[in-house]
């Protein structure tokens, strides 16, 4: 009898324990599901927010460039910034995304499992188009990368400002955002031959990063795009400036001396740079591509190194202008901020704060020296865009190899554990990457601009340039430039423009 009772109770207890265990595991799994879903949602929200900050940089570029060009060309430069973002959206949606992030084809470009142009990458068809399930559907990734594409394209507007046909600029923007830029993105951020994230995988899917094609190498470290974004835009701008030629009157035909054509609007320049600096936190911090799982710590570090580099570059550029030019040049200081930001973009997650200070200071030196080298070569870049983005972008890649530490590389979440920074290999990888990007952009963008120039022409006629592109291209009233302006009317007396201080008081 006692044994029967004991057996009965043990059975009941066992059944109860099993039921409790099942109930507990169900609740745990449900809690994990909710936690994972919340983490996913936070990551998506982070990327959308940071992508919006990067897109807001279009406003910064527009204000900066509007503050640099002559008033007779302000509408034209604003129009080009507007069109850049729109063209980038369509082209990156239709084909650019697939070429950048599709299945690797020989380490060069993305495509489909059964070929390069077989449809899967057209109009982002490879992004999961369903509901529910685990992981992200991918929409936020496209949005974030489109904002980068628009930023890359708009860099060129500053280099070729005030003398370039709109039609020529349309063609260039389409080719850049559809092909030139996505190829470099695949190299460095997709699964291309330079990538630190699964480079050039073999038949078994094993990554083969340069140089050693195994876990002892990292591939090129370009955390947020000093090379992939800024060098592509800057070197493209350089090629455009060379092909289109300098603005009329910029260089003395006999001595080659540079003439200042317009002092610019310092208010708009300052507004533009501060907007860009603000947006850069989306650019760099957002390149963690998430905020959960410890990524917020990396974002915090990136915010700090980005701030230090920009501030040091600003002060250095300002001091250089005072020492060598004799004035506190606000434009040089503002460009110094941008030079520091571009220089730190590749390495913001893999260097220490004091490294960031040195990198920013050196970026300002690259800016100042590059400004006068371009003038000496009689290459007219009104915004110094090719220096800030191209030359400083190259310095940013090199600085990554010089100042990175292996512990910082691991802290930033790069996949391979090795001593590539200590051995000096990483510097070699960064140099090879920069040379490859320069070669690709100089050849493709150079040929493109030459072809455009030989067909429809790159440059507006001299009289159009003199009158201003706002009048010829956008139908605005011709800029007065100090001349008398007469309003035709039978009832209102003609209105004459007079200089300040020339009015007579009765």
Mean pLDDT: 89
Which structural class is indicated by helix and strand composition?
A: mainly alpha
CA-based gyration radius: 28 Å
Characterize the overall form.
elongated
Low-confidence stretches: 130-135, 482-506
Helix content: 55-70%
Biggest sheet strand order reads 1-2
First CA to last CA: what distance? 126 Å
Q: Beta-strand percentage?
A: under 5%
**SSE string, helices as H and strands as E:** HHEEHHHHHHHHHHHHH
Helix segment tally: 15
- In oligomeric terms, what are we looking at? single chain
Q: Strand tally, please?
A: 2
Instruction: Please give the largest β-sheet.
Output: 2 strands, antiparallel
Molecular structure report:
The protein is 63% helix and 1% strand. The longest helix has 67 residues. The protein has 15 helices and 2 strands. The chain has 506 residues and is mostly helical.
SSE layout and pairings?
Blueprint: H1 2-68, H2 74-101, E1 103-105, E2 109-111, H3 139-159, H4 166-188, H5 226-244, H6 266-285, H7 295-325, H8 330-345, H9 353-376, H10 385-403, H11 406-411, H12 420-423, H13 425-455, H14 462-467, H15 469-474
Antiparallel strand pairs: 1-2
Q: What are the key terms here?
A:
two-stranded antiparallel sheet, single chain, 506 residues, 63% helix, mainly alpha, elongated, disordered C terminus
Précis, in short:
The chain has 506 residues and is an all-alpha fold. It is built from 15 helices and two strands.
